């Protein structure tokens, strides 16, 4: 432990401890004087949220001291040898403390006023600085707060000066080189764990750091506020778009979207998208509410499923499910990407966020969902890895009341790769949980697979699955597979689905369950001669994924030729189980007529700041930039699907052009309109995003 006597290291550690203790005291002040946690919240939830917050505070303290660490070990101009360097360090610490305390003061005021921790939306008050300044001056003791802020900052800076004198100006202690190296390793590990924000349940192949969504341990906004750090939270929200939607464009396309959603005449107006859906006549004839099991098939496109024409028999189990259930021939995800597809499935809103997924936006993480309206159902979400990835945990726990979330650290099986436990282990343990639920208790369960993804791990414990190695790379490349590893990963996913269905058939829940399968996206790797040509030349193969609804005791086999979107799945399932619900977004029950005629699915063909969007039917697609430029119409099943036919069929072109634009603009708006913000002291129509 001789390394601990390093003057630089002791000073830096003392600075980290001082800043961390300061933030702990500020967190305590927030809890005692500002928090709105009610009496119904358990002490365990409070301590769990506070524990998350303390780790955020430690991360910020480490980041604030990082510049000093650089200054400490410069060759000559460093904290030990140079008085000027020490002076600069104290100036930096003083200014950093000043800004830190100011941020907390603004955060406390923001929370008192709006019930939200400080975030980027606070900058809207700068749009009218005169009124905002007057309001603050008349509402708060500004002079006393300012004096307290300056005095506290001066006191803490004086403390830092004392720490510098105590640790940096003392005589240099003798430290062995071996001890210094050992100390460097220890400090690096502690620093890494501090920034990571966790020391247990870490998958070192994919160490997911602590994220703001971890604060939402209960879905309760007031409890989550105890776990957020205002500086880090403000930074997270500062990465969001400053103009998230174009209100003028939303209003322009509202009549079109109201027709698309078949909104009743008395429900139209003031950008209202809510429609109340009663129990449908096509509901299943069951004595008990049917269970719902959703299986997300990671990275599985239609071009790799035998039922869609793929050779080499990669998916015999899914093919049987397609033959025995509802099989959707033209099914599209709105945007490619796992997090974006999960968002679309749950919310009914295409994730048109230009770069990061919408789930990463803490301002819209509490969404209205059909799943949350499954009254009387147990709701379960199973994922083999960490649900904090893409901040999905925040979306799930905030939006689905009473959700039972099973993730990394909750399973008995060991991790096999970056994605956590194997899909087979996930299916087995998930089945055991579902099989233990009493027969009279309906449930909704979402099982998120991950194995069909690089590194395409074939785990050692895979029952009797056999790797197939009799196909050449040339054969596989010519039919949609990069190599044998990817081909066998698809086969293993299909095998695991088959094993899950075998287990389910032996259970009591099988006969009263709707099994819903969908791929979250495809990934273009090689040519696809077995698929219609438009899939490749129009780049639709990434969005075209398998979808089946399987319930042999409840549903007759059926092939759906119309274009169907991922956002339509939950309304369709809700119609089947006889749910009465409010639909506030863009998904529709496919068993209800489509007002636009040929059913249409919306897709984002190219992401980024200038996305390319499209509207797809079973026979046509309009393709255009988000602003309407470079628009074209394509006939899918033709010899030249890439040919622009907008002049030859202007009516179809204009119809699909308008739908694509309307979907894009409305989706951006619904991110915020569909979010539950729980703002206080503001009428419902006066709540700004």
Written account of the structure:
By secondary structure, the protein is an alpha/beta fold. Helix content is 41%, strand content 11%. It has helices at residues 7-33, 43-72, 83-114, 129-139, 142-168, 177-196, 221-227, 230-238, 247-260, 316-324, 338-347, 392-399, 423-435, 473-477, 484-505, 534-537, 569-577, 650-673; strands spanning 275-277, 291-297, 326-332, 378-383, 404-406, 443-448, 513-519, 547-550, 558-565, 581-583, 601-606, 612-616, 620-625, 632-635. An eight-stranded mixed beta sheet has the order 5-4-6-2-7-8-3-9. Helix 12 (392-399) links the parallel strand 4 (378-383) and strand 5 (404-406). Helix 1 (7-33) packs antiparallel against helix 2. It is globular, with a radius of gyration of 28 Å. The chain crosses the membrane at residues 12-34, 54-75, 87-106, 142-168, 180-197. This is LTA synthase family protein. Pfam families: Sulfatase.
